[in-house]
Write a structure and sequence with these properties.
Elements: H1 3-8, H2 16-32, H3 34-46, H4 51-63, H5 86-98
Helix pairs in contact: 2-3, 4-5
Amino acid sequence: MSDEHVRQGTGPGGHPTVERLVAAWLEETERHDSEAAGEARDGWERGALSERAAQDLATWVTARVTDTGFGEDEGPYVPGPVRITPSDKETVHAWLRARGHSV
């Protein structure tokens, strides 16, 4: 997916939050499992993630929530390459459910 697609929100996701987070997820996945990342990227570019990729994305976005809304004394700060709010997580989960994935 090109950077232009991400900026315009016109890639396979059609939603800027999903596009932003899928790009980060694919980049991270590539560092750890290039085969899985390749399969996921192919599905993403075709506009249809496999069930495995959808579950991996759902788990990844949940685990990477970095903007919890808590202060330093209320909860941990989770560093990461992108900011992910609970609302972002819900957006990705809703996007996956709308495409028939069980999340």
